[in-house]
Design brief:
Blueprint: E1 2-6, E2 9-17, H1 28-46, E3 54-60
């Protein structure tokens, strides 16, 4: 995770590679990892003195379909 600032715009970039697992879109370990990551980022944006509220998440999410639990 790293933060950047360009003039008035500040943002954080983070790369991740969500657990691939089996060909199961409801893989419990992957769901847990995604929930933890989402909670982490949501918590950072709510911090009173957060360095940046804008966050960009990059990489491989290993999501099979937009209708899956992931």
């Amino acid at each position: 995770m790293i933060g950047f600032g360009i003039d008035w715009f500040r943002f954080t970039i983070c790369t991740t590679h969500i657990l691939y697992g089996e060909d199961d879109p409801a893989e419990l370990r992957r769901l847990k990892e995604i929930r933890l990551l989402a909670t982490f980022f949501a918590d950072r944006t709510r911090e009173e003195y957060a360095w940046a509220k804008n966050m960009i998440l990059l990489r491989d999410f290993n999501i099979y379909d937009t209708e899956d639990l992931t």
